[in-house]
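Justification of computing resources. Each target in the renewal requires a structure prediction run like the one illustrated here; the chain below, 569 residues long, is used simply to show the kind of job we budget for.
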Amino acid sequence: MDLKHRSHGITDGRDRAPARAMFKAIGFSDSDLSKPLIGVANTWIETMPCNFHLRRLSAKVKEGIRAAGGTPMEFNTIAISDGETMGTEGMRASLVSREIIADSIELVCRGQMFDAVVCVVGCDKTIPAAGMALARLNIPGLVLYGGTIAGSYKGKDVTIQDVFEAVGANAAGKMTDQELRELENVACPGSGACGGQYTANTMSTVMELIGLSPMGFNGVPAMEARKDDVAFRCGEIILEALKRGIRPKDILTRPAFENAIAGVACTGGSTNAVLHLLAIAREAGVALAIDDFQKVSERTPLLANLKPAGRFVAADVDKAGGIPVIAKRLLDGKIAHGSVLTITGKSFAEEANVALETPGQQVVAPLDRPLKKTGGLVILHGNLAPEGCVAKISGHERLTHRGPARVFESEEDAMTAVTSKHIQPGDVVVIRNEGPKGGPGMREMLGVTAAIVGEGLGESVALLTDGRFSGATRGLMLGHVAPEAALGGPIAALRDGDTVHIDVNQRRIEVELSDASLKQRLAGWHAPQPRYESGVFAKYAALVSSASAGAITRPPAVEVEASPLRNSG
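Resulting structure tokens:
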């Protein structure tokens, strides 16, 4: 590959003198401009710990690029904190931000004609957005995750999950105001992403196992000195990938997606990975359906004992030997495809086979003693979810539930009912009109699910929603119900008191109504008034697809014959 395969169009020749003049105004020399231009997409923002330290890492990435013979050019994207906006109107911006981040990375790289790009990411949506952008651009690119943190309270590792659950415990009188404040003050001790196998760490795992991140790099904790070293090395690796001509679509193959799904399943990862991997697959042109997650999960054992349902935090995985140990387990179990390419130019098997497992570690179970024989992802169908819905089953949850529906039209209404003790054991809490279009933005329901657990109802109440769950959610919680209520999906027909039956073993979610009754109710259904009629949320609602298709945005379909500008030559 020509190392300046794109940037020569903006830097070379007489006609580019004005462009060079502008580059020189900010310190770039003729020598700099003669080298490949490497974009550094930095998702730094001053609003959250997850991304707060990324300027430091981006500086190291740029040092590595220069050392390897390239010229780095850094640019920023936006980011939204899921943890801070959870349970508020601001949470509607989270999934919307995934599209805007992907769009902005794609747009700057296309506009500035970069030859390759390194995406430095942190909180949840920046990670899948980077993968989506790389799939669209198909120029050499890699993803570096900023790393994780974990707090300590009364001698135990704690994460933001503990704070959310403490809110419910405080409301139930099980924790004092002072104890809640003490926990709040130590749960997030510095820069870095939430410590459990929540969405950020799940998608970080995905990026290593799918091949877009160098294996073993993402799991290094945020504030360790080793993180600077791997950031520098990423700068070198991207130049190596450019020289080899390794493009994202060479990496993002169907077998690579199956490796990533297996990684989510064996670590008890976030259900959001379903949504994000479907989105990346569609951008890469890879055939992937929601039921494929079930097939891979069924052949993948649960091996990693990680929060939210397990004992350990993500930093413990690094101490145990990192994601390469998990990759080696998957390879040894003949669950992973070893021949697929990674960004380093090595195969998945080559990377996994050099894993250095810490003797005596207890974080990742051996293949012959899994925590559970099948993975944590379960896809259910039924008359309430014809296109499917997603649950995370870590082995601690009950597998069946039958009870009366308690229907709420928003997360706020459900939260009020939980904290005011209006939810009873046996209930099925239903939160609808929170899907991609109806929300808009498909909010995560961690506030409600954590409050249910904190109130002591985690073992006796189920929750069903067309919205999403945080990776920190635990219990019998089913999300991503499709079609969503705003599109007239069957969840829109539910009424208080209807009996809902959930059977995880049978992969079924049903309301005990006849098809005729459901059809009659839906015939009288009217689409709710959009919450937003202008601005970014209105634009998103108009373009977003179903959760079962990854909730990506696509322009309206255009009939080819109707276009007078069609180029027939």
